[in-house]
Amino acid sequence: MSLFTRVSLAVGLALLPHLVLAQAPAPIKPKVMLVTMFAPEAQTWIDRLALKQEVRVPGLSAEYPVIRCNTEDVCLLVTGMGQTNAAASTLALALSPKFDLRQSYFLIAGIAGISPKHGTLGTTAWAHYLVEFGTQWEIDSRDAPKDWPTGYIGINTKGPNEKPPLDYKTEVFELNPKLQAKAFALSQKVELTESQESSAWRKHYPAAPANQPPQVTRCDTLAGNTWFSGTRLSERAEVWTRLLTDNQGEYCTTQQEDNSTYEALLRASREGLVDIQRLAVVRAGSDFDRPYPGYSEVDNLLKYADQGGFVPALENLYRTGNPLVQAILKHWSAWEKGVPDA
């Protein structure tokens, strides 16, 4: 190898890191990152907010491999359904060098089962507490003591009304109450929609708010991969939420992912990659978690689609969440350093 060749090679190798850095695009800095779980939840946001830019992020779900963004600094993640997809996709995004999420607000917006004690089909609920339902001991209810309402009890407890020691550290999370209050204030007067089917179905329930038109409310959400349905399990969800929140929380919606998404963001927050205090969660009732009096417990699960709440729930997620999104965008100077007081 000639001297000239050796010198040229050495210079080229020395300059290579600088050339790579010069060619790498600056990370995207979303003001808002929307988090949905599957395509129907995402589509309304994609259409209404013109989320046309696609950014491929390694580690996302094979079904949803890109983050979608618009020109106004709003982006959207579709995690894939269930706890595993939610945690893996969220952490992949948080660790991606393609995004700078340190000042981003995260909005989880998804459909859920709804308690008739706190809402109806199409009701949207801003959560304060995220409660994990699956992290319990379970025995077949037919083998449980007669004074146990179900086969569920807290891990390392002696009965269904005893609070467990929370050894997993993911059983319950408290969201930023200031952000929840702000989100609710911005959206509480939004007019929500319902379908002919959901309007007819809610009238089977004997009391409000189940038999009234949907409204925006505040109550807490419960996560678990097992899609449960029925009066007894829903009542267990109420008890479990009160136990884990020391009687501060009020169960109203049931879904699969939110504790997993939160934990992924919490780990990223500990590394300074996101701010966990900038996370809000809204869920919309697409079906009732228990039947109306006289209706079959089994059919409430197997024929949940007959309730007609799916389409209005998707629309109402946008109607409820978008006021928060627009407030952040239009008044970024007030939101940039944290949730504003006024």
Automatic annotation (TrEMBL):
Pfam families: NUP
Signal peptide (from-to): 1-22
Claim: Signal is one of the keywords in the record: yes
Keyword Signal attached: yes
Keywords: Signal
Gene Ontology MF terms in the entry: catalytic activity
Gene3D superfamilies named in the record: Nucleoside phosphorylase domain
Superkingdom of origin: Bacteria
One record GO biological process: transmembrane transport
UniProt feature coiled coil, ranges: none
Protein name as it appears in the record: Purine nucleoside permease
Source organism (scientific name): Pseudomonas veronii
